[in-house]
């Protein structure tokens, strides 16, 4: 596996360096991908180990598992200032189940728990909310900064406040739509989250209805709210992404064998005019399949118009959004880039994040 974007890894370095300076034995926990409780060789954390050693200029040992007597014995022999990286936590299904026994096994590996994973603080996972029940716990430097900066935004947003939500993770973002319709002056939607809402509205966009739980959440949203802006056209291709087949069309003209992969020119025009008015912009999730050059135009042009708004405080967050900004060399044009996507949106929507609550 190759690391395409190391933004989150970089952001954890100050906390690790601080702990090394204080003479701590540093035991790092993380997850990668969705192995569904099984060992998947391509999802081992070796590339993370290599990248951490590159930035820290420090030797790091990685274990073959994340719990067990062998790891406990290794930690007992470690010297102050040494680092051990545990293997992918999600190789155990108990990680995503907030399993009490798994939490107790992990707590055998340390004396103090530090959470520096803001991007996962909205998850009820064992390593986020289970361990703090059994160990003295605190926030890392990155988590502290995320809370400090985003709290200011939450308490006193500049107006007009424009929120842009896209990406493919529908379930984690759909639940904050109603809150942002109250808090923001305009809410612009793209990506799979916009597609899901359009389908529930009865618009033909070439894809089936989303899961029942998602439908229930969408039905609670005031879809006639004038603050809500959905795509009016899109860049369309076959669901099989057949080479050479590409067209632009209005929403509602998509056939069942087709799919929308990006917002269209008319949608871009509408979104741009709204963004130009903003004094604060919060963005999480690309507006199309930006990884493919055929479908990058929407995300790229929206990123560019945001970066040119010098009167607005600009915030972006989430792994795919960060990857897009890096691809288009625009990440430095934003005032603050959060490591969290869903976590950032939930925090700014006023939701209590389980990972932060667990530290209190």
TrEMBL record:
Pathway: Carbohydrate degradation; glycolysis; pyruvate from D-glyceraldehyde 3-phosphate: step 2/5. Monomer. This is Phosphoglycerate kinase. The lineage of its organism: Bacteria, Candidatus Nealsoniibacteriota. It comes from the Bacteria. ATP binds at residues 173, 291, 318-321. Its main location: cytoplasm. SUPFAM superfamilies: Phosphoglycerate kinase (SSF53748). Keywords: ATP-binding, Cytoplasm, Glycolysis, Kinase, Nucleotide-binding, Transferase. It is found in: Cytoplasm. Belongs to the phosphoglycerate kinase family. One of its GO terms (molecular function) is ADP binding. One of its GO terms (biological process) is glycolytic process. Its EC number is 2.7.2.3. GO terms for cellular component: cytosol. Transmembrane segments: none annotated.
């Amino acid at each position: 596996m190759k690391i395409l974007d190391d933004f989150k890894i970089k952001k954890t370095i100050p906390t690790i360096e601080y702990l090394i300076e204080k003479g701590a034995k540093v035991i790092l926990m993380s997850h990668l991908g969705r192995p569904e409780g099984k060992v998947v060789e391509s999802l081992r954390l070796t590339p993370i180990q290599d990248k951490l050693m590159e930035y820290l200029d420090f030797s790091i040992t990685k274990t073959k598992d994340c719990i067990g007597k062998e790891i406990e014995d290794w930690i007992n022999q470690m010297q102050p200032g040494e680092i051990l990286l545990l293997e992918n936590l999600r190789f155990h299904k108990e990680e995503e189940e907030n399993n009490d026994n798994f939490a107790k096994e992990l707590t055998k590996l340390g004396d103090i728990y530090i959470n520096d994973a803001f991007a996962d603080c909205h998850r009820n996972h064992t390593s986020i909310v289970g361990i703090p029940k059994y160990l003295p716990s605190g926030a890392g430097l990155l988590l502290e900064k995320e809370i400090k900066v985003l709290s200011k935004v939450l308490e006193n947003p500049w107006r007009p406040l424009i929120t842009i939500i896209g990406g493919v993770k529908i379930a984690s973002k759909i639940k904050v739509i109603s809150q942002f319709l109250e808090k923001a002056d305009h809410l612009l939607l793209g990506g799979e989250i916009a597609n899901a809402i359009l389908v529930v509205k009865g618009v033909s966009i070439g894809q089936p209805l989303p899961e029942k739980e998602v439908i229930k959440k969408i039905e609670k949203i005031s879809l006639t709210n004038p603050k809500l802006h959905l795509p009016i056209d899109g860049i369309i291709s076959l669901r099989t992404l057949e080479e050479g087949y590409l067209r632009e069309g209005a929403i509602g003209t998509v056939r069942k064998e087709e799919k929308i992969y990006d917002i269209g020119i008319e949608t871009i025009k509408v979104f741009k005019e709204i963004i130009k008015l903003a004094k604060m912009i919060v963005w999480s999730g690309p507006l199309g399949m930006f990884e493919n050059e055929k479908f990058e135009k929407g995300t790229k042009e929206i990123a560019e118009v945001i970066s040119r708004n010098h009167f607005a405080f600009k915030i972006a967050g989430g792994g795919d959004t960060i990857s897009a900004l890096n691809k288009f060399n625009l990440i430095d044009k934003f005032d603050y880039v959060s490591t969290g996507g869903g976590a950032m949106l939930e925090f700014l929507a006023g939701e209590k994040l389980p990972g932060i609550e667990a530290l209190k």
